[in-house]
Amino acid sequence: MKKKQVLVACGAGIATSTVVNGAIEDMAKEHGLDVDLKQIKISEVGSYEDTADLLVTTAMTKKEFPFPVINARSFLTGIGTEETKKQILEELQK
After folding, report:
1. What are the sequence ranges of the domains in the chain?
2. What is the mean pLDDT of residues 3-28?
3. SS3 content of the chain, % helix, strand, coil (to 5)
4. Is residue 63 helix, strand or coil?
5. What is the pLDDT of residue 17?
6. What's this model's pTM, rounded to 2 decimal places?
7. Which of 15-19, 28-32, 35-39, 81-85 has the lowest mean pLDDT?
8. Where does the record place the PTS EIIB type-2 domain (predicted)?
9. Cα–Cα distance measured from residue 27 to residue 6, given in angstroms and rounded to the nearest whole number
10. Which of 1, 50, 74, 86 has CB atoms 3.0–4.6 Å from 80's, for a disulfide?
11. Quick check: 32 and 22 in contact, CB under 8 A?
């Protein structure tokens, strides 16, 4: 299975994406998945359109991307985090 490039983006590319980044790292380790995590600002996503496999974001985006986009706002609220993790894991295992 090829290494998946996962973009983790929030509005500023700092606080919330760090939390999400950590959660994805833990999941990848736990399930033996090879991921290349890129922690970026939502405004930078476009420059990864040709290489990324997945976008996990806590920011709002209306733009269409050629890869799945998972809304990770649950990481901010603490509500529905397990469901979000499940979605991320399913994409990583494809």
Report:
1. 4-93
2. 86
3. 40, 20, 35
4. coil
5. 79
6. 0.90
7. 15-19
8. 4-94
9. 13
10. 74
11. no
